[in-house]
Structure formats: C-alpha cells, structure tokens
C-alpha cells in the first residue's frame, strides 16, 4: 500500500543530527487551538479557530514543499487561506499573518497592489493538496462586539486587528513549540492569589498604622476608596484624580488588583508617558510583587543580558515582551498606542492579551494631543468590547468628558477631589512676568537650593553656564540617560545633606522624578507642566506653604510647538486665584482642546480605521513626530565593549537596547551639523558614534557645531 504523502510545515535538526518534521495539518491544528483560546477572551473563539485552521493552506503547494525540503525560493503561502474563506476579518488576518495588515483597497486594485483586494487577485501556486486532509467550513457566527450606533465601522476594524493578533501569536507559539522541541519557557509567574496577598500586606500596613498628620490620613483615605471601589464595581472606565503626593501609584495598583480579583481578569497594564520615569514605577511594583512578576516593556529595556536577570527569568521575560503574557506590564504611551494602531505582526502580536485587562494610564494629561481622539476611541473600544477596565490617573485630570466615547461613562474613584487639592496644597504659585536671563540667573544664584525648568535645551545650558559657585547642575537630553542618572544621584545626595544645589533643567524632571526643592522656577508653559513642576517643590510637605514657592516667569525665545499651550495657560491664569485648583485645570484643558479642535485627530486616524486602511493608519500614527537620530557616546569601558560588539556582529534589537543608555537623541538639523563637521561616524545606518570624546562634557553633554567656522556652541 502506497504511503500517504506528508506535507511539511516545519523541520528541525535534532542534537543527534536527524531531522524531525511537523506536518502542515499538525501545525494548523496546533495554531487553531491557541488562536481559539486567545480569541475566546473577546467572544470570537470560532473566528480564531478558523484563522488557525486555514492560515497556511498555501503550504500544501508543491512549490512550498520543494522550498522547505530543498531550501528553494520563497513561496506565497498566506494568500491561499484568504482566498478560501469569505469572512473579511479572517481573510485579512490570514493574508497578513507574515507581511502585516494591509489596506483593504477597492475592487479596482490589481494583483500587484499592496491591498487585500489586490492580493486576492494574485495567481498563486496550486495548493489543492489540502483537499486530501482538510475540508473547508465557512464560519457561521458573527462577531459578538456591541453594535453601538456610530461605532460599528470602527469596532469592525478593531475586531480585525485583535483577531489578527490572536492568529500571529498562535502561529509564533506553535512554531516555537515544535522548533524548540517543547523547550519554550512560558509562564512561571506567581499565582494571582500570592500577588494579591503581597499587595494586601502592604496596603494593610498603611491602613492599620496610625497616620501622622492630615496628609497621611488622606493618603490612607484615597487608598481605602480605591480598594473599596475596586471590589464593588464592574469593568468600566474610571478616572483617579489625586493631587501630587496623594500616593496614586500604589492606590491605582490596589484598585486594579481588587478589580482583577472581583471580575476574574487576566493582567494589569500600567501605561506611562516617558521611558525616563518607568524605572521607579517598576521598582515600586517589584518591591511589592516580586521582580519576576513585573515586565517593563519600552525602547530601553533588553531581556537577553544574563547578567541582568537570573536563570529562566531571562527567556520568560524576553518572550513576554513579545506577547505581554505576564501578570503586570509597565509600558509607555508610545509602545501601547502605536501597537494598537500598528500593522506589523511584531507590534500586533501582544494585542489580544490586552483583552480582559485593567489598564492604568498614568499622567493621563500626557496622552498625545495630536492623536487624542483616536487614543480615547481605542480606550473606549477596549472597555466596550474587550472586557477591559481603563483608569485615567493624574494629578491634573484633563477635560476629557466631551471627547470620550459617549456610550462609555467615566466614573471618578475619589470622592470630593476639590477638598483634596486644598489639603494637599504644599506650594504657592507666583507670577514674575517677563524676565531677562541676567535677572533669572541672579535670582537663582541667590538661592541655596533651587530648581529652574526652562523650555529648550539651549536655555537650560545658557542659564546653567551663567551660574556661579559650587553645587550647580545641568540636566537635559543633550546628556545620555546614564549620565543623567548619575547627575540625579548627586543632586539627591546634596539635597538630603542640605548642601548648595542649584539645578537648571528642561522639562525632563517634571514627571516622576523624585526631587524635593524649597523653591522652583518654571518658564511659562502648559498649565499641566507648571503644576508638574510644582510637584518638585516641598514634595514631602515639611516646609510651610509661605516658604515653598513656584515662580512662573516668561523668557524670550518661546518654542513654536508650545504656542497653543502657552495661549491656553495665558488665557486661564488671570481668571483663577489658585493655579492648581480643579476648576483652573479643567478650564485650561477645555481652552486647549478648543484651540486645537480638529488637531485632536491630526491625521484622520479614526476615519482611516473605519475605511480599513490598516497599513496607512500604522504609518500615520506616530506619536513622536519629529525625526530624530541617535548618537552613541563610548564614554567608558562598558560602552566601548558594546561598541566593539556592534562593530563585530552588527545591530541586533537586544544590543541596541543596551546601547540606548549611552545614546543622545538629536533632531535632524543638529545631527547633520555633527555629520558635516565630521564629529560622528555612521555605522551602517543604524547608529552613529561620537568620534572624539572631547565633544561630550560632564557638565552639559554633547557639543553641537553651529557656525560656518565649525565653532562649538550649544543651541536648541
């Protein structure tokens, strides 16, 4: 009897030198099992299974079988399944499971155009061999998302994206299972009950200890409200408006943990605006929950360095960054929202694991204004159809009500927030008006400990350079992250010892940097930035209000990109007695959003989503709109070792992430100046390196050549 032909999906070489195969049918069944489980979380298990069942039908072609057995040319094996299934979301997921989501296109598109309509017209190798093993069954169910008036087209596009995520993660995992011989390290995290008890021990310690003073009493009250509401309320959208110093980080985690336990949810995702403030949040969570249960995922983290993470945690965390299969994720606005609007499998793979999660948006006022509407729309969709709870958490709650999806009510967690602001008020805001740099410098020189925050790197350096005496420090992104951390450590040490400490910085110190000065100067900016600066003054509340002043001043040379923020602040400040009152903050954001108006969806992302233009959305949705270039500073032995590895082996994602600690990011025109004057060496387009370390100073970071003579000056 003739042996039945085996159609091969994958093959791997064993330690003994033999080849083992995974048949196409085995791979389809394994992928379908994973994809069904993933999609069941949002009521689409049958859709997930269908994606898995037919995603690799093209591997039944003779051409593909020749490729895998003889290492022949690449063969399109993704289009076949899309041709067989009539459901659009499944067609899109299958067709794009390697190349990425594409625009739907129109019937007029030809076979060579990069749209789904064009793709389905392609002539592909005969894959009819599948008929000996598989019977095609069209999906009978319809997507279970809520048919909300006005949101149906958007919901359909979002569903397609989540289905795609379920398929690509399933495909990756089943392939890894086979190729590793079952050796892929997954899970290994502590049980949620264990994590709950650890946090409960921490919160009960706060609540049972007798608070000293009204501030600590109110912190405990905020914490208790978060615990109570987390237990009693179902999934939904919430705001947590807590003044600076109110303990919102632990309180929001407590709310999330109670929500998770009460509603049977899967994970907690903490979204932060900047990579620079992630570390201390991660450290706080790791201290309570254990480091292996907290995953930091942003551009500067690398989990392939065995010196950093012991044992199996390396592989476990490395995989978890790819699909977010971990208990607690701490990530950035950029990572979270660009993934939600991305089209590549690498960025979308994690999305299905957002379903049934609690998502906390720290510093919610920092949601990107140019994309505010699509960001809020995506948050609303996650709450509406993907069993998520969203918490918009901030000390300066933006005026979001009119812009949030109308069918998703926003509920405030804390009672009587206005009274809280009165109790937590630890600083006075005073206006200086327009000042010269000389006057500003003189005032700073007369202070023993003071923080001055300005709007540009050039201003920061110019003011710093004019200071006299010892104990003066400069902070800006002209300095590499490693350098800034070292300077911040010195600053904290001097502040604690009561030594002279005058710091001139850009806005990088405003959010999440734990500094406490008796006096702060803040250049005129958006009101939320001014209040954030106030959070660096009398942070511990140990000084009288009369001695804790934030001076707001105007300085020549206002950046154009701050135009709307400055206009909104200037419009509302004269109308409110207290700069940091909830009324003033709400008035500011209402004014700002009115000024920006159509600019709240600057690239018409929602319209393009509804048109199913997935690749176009991905390219247009870039939170960091200014083109920037990285320069590596080989400042010490460790940096030089990394550079040698780069020169030897070329770029890799893990290596580049380690190198980020020694990178300075520059706008194109500054980078071009360094290049023109041959101050940098470009390494194969991925990164450039500073040639002469004399062009990097310990006071201010990288030097930029400005004039025609190549004279070195600093400028923004």
From TrEMBL:
Record's keyword annotation contains Metal-binding = yes
The record places domain HD Cas3-type at 17-173
GO biological process terms, semicolon-separated: defense response to virus
The Gene Ontology terms for molecular function here are: ATP binding; endonuclease activity; helicase activity; hydrolase activity; metal ion binding; nucleic acid binding
Record-linked InterPro entries:
Cas3-like_dom (IPR054712), CRISPR-assoc_Cas3_HD (IPR006483), CRISPR-assoc_Cas3_HD_sf (IPR038257), DEAD/DEAH_box_helicase_dom (IPR011545), Helicase_ATP-bd (IPR014001), Helicase_Cas3_CRISPR-ass_core (IPR006474), P-loop_NTPase (IPR027417)
Which residues belong to any copy of the Helicase ATP-binding domain? Answer: 229-398
Q: Establish whether keyword Hydrolase is in the entry.
A: yes
What are the entry keywords?
A: Antiviral defense, ATP-binding, Endonuclease, Helicase, Hydrolase, Metal-binding, Nuclease, Nucleotide-binding
Read off the Pfam families from this record. Answer: Cas3-like_C_2, DEAD
Q: What's this protein's family per the entry?
A: In the N-terminal section; belongs to the CRISPR-associated nuclease Cas3-HD family.
Q: Write down what this protein is called.
A: CRISPR-associated endonuclease/helicase Cas3
Native species: Eubacterium aggregans
């Amino acid at each position: 009897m003739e042996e039945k032909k085996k159609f091969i999906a994958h093959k791997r070489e064993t330690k003994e030198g033999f080849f083992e195969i995974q048949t196409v049918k085995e791979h389809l069944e394994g992928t379908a099992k994973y994809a069904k489980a993933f999609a069941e979380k949002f009521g689409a298990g049958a859709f997930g299974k269908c994606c898995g069942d037919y995603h690799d039908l093209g591997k039944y072609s003779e051409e593909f079988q020749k490729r895998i057995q003889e290492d022949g040319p690449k063969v399109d094996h993704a289009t076949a399944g899309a041709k067989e299934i009539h459901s659009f979301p499944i067609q899109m997921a299958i067709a794009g499971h390697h190349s990425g989501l594409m625009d739907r296109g129109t019937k007029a598109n030809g076979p060579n155009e990069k749209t789904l309509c064009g793709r389905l017209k392609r002539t592909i190798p005969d894959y009819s061999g599948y008929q000996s093993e598989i019977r095609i069954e069209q999906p009978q169910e319809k997507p279970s998302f809520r048919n909300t008036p006005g949101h149906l087209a958007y919901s359909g596009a979002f569903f397609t994206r989540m289905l795609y995520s379920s398929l690509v993660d399933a495909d990756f995992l089943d392939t890894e299972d086979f190729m590793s011989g079952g050796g892929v390290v997954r899970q290994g995290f502590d049980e949620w009950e264990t994590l709950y008890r650890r946090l409960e021990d921490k919160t009960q310690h706060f609540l049972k200890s007798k608070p000293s003073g009204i501030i600590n009493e109110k912190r405990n009250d905020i914490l208790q409200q978060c615990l109570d509401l987390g237990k009693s309320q179902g999934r939904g959208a919430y705001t947590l408006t807590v003044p600076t110093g109110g303990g919102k980080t632990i309180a929001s985690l407590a709310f999330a943990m109670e929500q998770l336990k009460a509603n049977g949810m899967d994970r907690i995702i903490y979204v932060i605006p900047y990579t620079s403030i992630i570390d201390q949040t991660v450290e706080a969570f790791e201290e309570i929950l254990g480091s292996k249960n907290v995953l930091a995922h942003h551009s500067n983290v690398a989990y392939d360095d065995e010196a950093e993470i012991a044992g199996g945690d390396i592989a476990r965390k490395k995989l978890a960054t790819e699909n977010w299969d971990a208990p607690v994720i701490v990530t950035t606005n950029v990572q979270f929202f660009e993934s939600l609007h991305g089209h590549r499998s690498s960025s979308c793979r994690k999305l299905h694991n957002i379903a049934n999660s609690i998502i906390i948006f720290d510093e919610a006022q920092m949601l990107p204004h140019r994309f505010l509407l699509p960001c809020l729309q995506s948050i609303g969709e996650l709450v509406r159809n993907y069993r998520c709870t969203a918490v918009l958490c901030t000390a300066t709650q933006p005026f979001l009500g009119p812009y949030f999806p109308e069918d998703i009510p926003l509920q405030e967690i804390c009672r009587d927030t206005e009274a809280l602001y009165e109790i937590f008020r630890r600083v006075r805001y005073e206006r200086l008006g327009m000042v010269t740099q000389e006057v500003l410098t003189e005032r700073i020189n007369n202070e023993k400990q003071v923080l001055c925050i300005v709007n540009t790197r050039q201003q920061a350096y110019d003011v710093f350079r004019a200071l006299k005496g010892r104990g003066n420090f400069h902070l800006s992104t002209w300095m590499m992250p490693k350098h800034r951390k070292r300077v911040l450590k010195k600053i904290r040490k001097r502040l604690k010892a009561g030594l002279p400490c005058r710091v001139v910085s850009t806005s990088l110190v405003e959010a999440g940097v734990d500094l406490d000065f008796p006096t702060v100067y803040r250049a005129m900016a958006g009101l939320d930035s001014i209040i954030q600066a106030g959070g660096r003054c009398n942070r511990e509340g140990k000084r009288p209000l009369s001695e804790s002043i934030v001076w707001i001043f105007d300085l020549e040379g206002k950046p154009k990109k701050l135009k709307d923020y400055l206009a909104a602040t200037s419009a509302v400040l004269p109308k409110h007695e207290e700069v940091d009152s909830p009324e003033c903050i709400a008035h500011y954001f209402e004014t700002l959003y009115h000024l920006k108006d159509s600019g709240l969806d600057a690239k018409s992302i929602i319209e393009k989503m509804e048109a199913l233009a997935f690749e176009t959305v991905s390219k247009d949705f870039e939170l960091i709109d200014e083109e920037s270039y990285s320069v590596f500073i080989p400042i010490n032995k460790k940096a030089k070792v990394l550079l040698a590895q780069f020169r030897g082996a070329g770029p890799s994602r893990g290596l580049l992430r380690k190198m980020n600690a020694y990178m300075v990011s520059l706008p194109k025109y500054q980078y071009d100046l360094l290049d023109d004057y041959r101050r940098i060496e470009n390494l194969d387009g991925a990164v450039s390196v500073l040639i002469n370390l004399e062009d990097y100073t310990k006071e201010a970071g990288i030097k930029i050549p400005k004039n025609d003579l190549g004279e070195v000056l600093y400028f923004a």
